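Hi C.,

You asked whether I'd gotten around to modeling the 302-residue construct. I have! Everything is below, sequence then structure, no commentary in between.
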Amino acid sequence: MNNKVNNKDRGDSLLEVVISTVIMGMIGVLLVSSIAVARPFADKMSLVGQTVQNLNTMAESINLQPFTFCTPTNPQPYGLSATTQRSSTPSTNYAIATTSLPPVVISTPSKQYNYSAQLSADHAIGSVTWSVEPALPSGLTLNPDSGLITGKISKEFSSQHLFTASNGAQKATKTLELITATLQVQVNNGLTWIPCEASTIATISGAQSDGKFITYSYSGKQFVTGESVTIWGSSNPAFDGNSLAIVAADSNSFTVATTIPKGISSSGGQANISSQINIQQVVLTTSASGSPLQKVVTKALA
């Protein structure tokens, strides 16, 4: 009788062990699966965070520059700066320290953006030779001796690249993503924001004041009496950026009242009927791992 009880107990114990083992195995599989699913999501969030930081840096560099009037022939008058991100906790071993690359701003026919990003390595002794697989997009090059990426891009892209830093017998690798960004300066036409290159303007070739009125010679957009015109484009006081009412106009000239002294003249400049030409929105747009990101900087003439 006792033997039967003992055998039953042993059977029950063995069954419990088997069930426990199966449950633990299932939990292990679920944990591994969860980690596998979570890692790409964490990597994506890290990339998005780094891209947002780069956009903020680029926006701040624009914000610090003085207001500049944009024209259809120069619709993007602001320069850009962005920094290559490094790990805040340096590696204790030889390793590539760069954690992210700034976006490559797409060049346009009217504005060329020269890209520059410096790769770096921790605990590099002696010379370091850099290489990349696959090759960088056409227009960008990696200097194998300095680790500097330079060039210009005119098309949108997003790609991942494996960078290698060889230091004699040592070798370090890291995969980094390269993405593009666009920059657009917008002005208000009185109804909505439009790209600067779509703004209708006239080109001023000269101005002459008699002390009460100033007459501008111009070509391009045709002005009519009664319109309010904004004039800019020169440090000459004839171009003060104020909105003025046109008191006379024909196809070659228009006249506005002025307090500019008699005899003041100037050549060169732009004119627009929009009273909002003194306000701009500089829009930076990019995407990280398919997530669209945008930063808007408002610029106004002081």
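If it helps when you're writing up: Helices lie at 2-63.

Thanks,
B.
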